[in-house]
Amino acid sequence: MPLDPDIATLLDRVRRAARPPFESMTPADARVAYRKASRVLDIATRPLPRVSEHRFLSRDGAPVRVRLYAATADDESLPTLLYFHGGGFTIGSIESHDAVCRMLAHDTGCLVASVDYRLAPEHRFPTAAHDAQDALLWLVDHAEALGVDRSRVAIGGDSAGGTLAAVTAIRAREAGIACVLQLLIYPGTKRDDDTPSRRSLAEGYLLDATTIAWFFDQYVPDPQQRDDWRYAPLDGRGPDGGPVALASAAPACIVTAGYDPLHDEGVAYANRLAEAGVPVRRLDYPGMIHGFLQFAGAIPAARAAHRDIAAVLRHAFGTAESPSLVAPPFEKTS
């Protein structure tokens, strides 16, 4: 399918603007640039009756910030999405994904818990993966005080946050926490850059191969650590030296974009989950590029994706109010 015309126009404007790539900046400057850029095409910030800031202590004693969003002021326990922002483990924050999290809370009626996990290179692998798991344990342990319905917890994230969500879903299974969904939005899952989409889309679609390499050099500079499944859940090594077991993980919804270098590893991970007996649904947007979820202020197809993702979440939480909002049953990817 051809590139979406609105995306083609966007890419042309980006090329003409000749903005410096993230890899030419310091991590601190890249974070500032990303935060500014993330608001340009995003939807308007939606007011919500309940937004609150919290902190938990990670396993090494460092405080990690979490922002809770709810579309109701009531104190009732709500189905909850634990969300991890994208940014290559190096950039991104609660602020860069504020509009998306507000949208998810409003459109699903759930509580969204957005985690400000620690970033590289100040905090290298596996700090982000540890913070993500610790956030889930904190959320479940303090469910009553936070207004979380323990029986309806989903884990989600985009890009690097999708990687963290996939890893945390496996950790949840090991901890005996039954999550209703893992929502993986264009996740990175593979240790190597040897897929057709990585090769054919290496330049010109916002997420260039040089940028990916720079992100991973910040987060996992030791090549041997890239064999770890917590970095590469698709083909990294688990505790027994082979691929990590995926059986009995939470049902999955994997969002992929046709012009995303990470497209093929998202599809491959969906297939691995399905082969392990995990219910999987894949939402594919053939004309889109990596990061398109935050383009919904200008790209109609991105707004449609918002609606699709909200429908899948409502279905997983059992809160759909109209047949038109109910996503089809989970299906194994062919």
Describe this structure as you would to a colleague.
- This protein has helices at residues 5-17, 27-40, 98-108, 127-141, 143-146, 160-174, 196-200, 209-219, 263-275, 300-317, and strands at residues 50-57, 63-70, 78-84, 111-116, 148-158, 181-185, 252-259, 280-289.
- With 334 residues, it is α/β, with parallel strands linked by helices.
- The chain has a single domain, classed as Rossmann fold, CATH 3.40.50.1820.
- Strand 1 and strand 2 (63-70) form a beta hairpin.
Features:
334 residues, disordered C terminus, eight-stranded mixed beta sheet, 19% strand, alpha/beta, Rossmann fold
Domain count, please report it: 1
Distance between the termini: 19 Å
Number of helices: 10
Helix content: 25-40%
Mean pLDDT figure = 94
Rg on CA atoms, Å: 18 Å
Strand neighbour order, sheet with most strands: 1-2-4-3-5-6-7-8
- Which CATH architecture would you pick? 3-Layer(aba) Sandwich
User: What is the total tally of β strands?
Assistant: 8
Question: What is the CATH level 1 assignment?
Answer: Alpha Beta
Form type: globular
Strand content: 15-25%
CATH topology: Rossmann fold
Largest sheet: 8 strands, mixed
Structural class by SSE content: alpha/beta
Question: What series of H and E elements makes up the topology?
Answer: HHEEEHEHHEHEHHEHEH
Draw up the topology in text.
Layout: H1 5-17, H2 27-40, E1 50-57, E2 63-70, E3 78-84, H3 98-108, E4 111-116, H4 127-141, H5 143-146, E5 148-158, H6 160-174, E6 181-185, H7 196-200, H8 209-219, E7 252-259, H9 263-275, E8 280-289, H10 300-317
Parallel strand pairs: 3-4, 3-5, 5-6, 6-7, 7-8
Antiparallel strand pairs: 1-2, 2-4
Helix pairs in contact: 3-10, 4-6
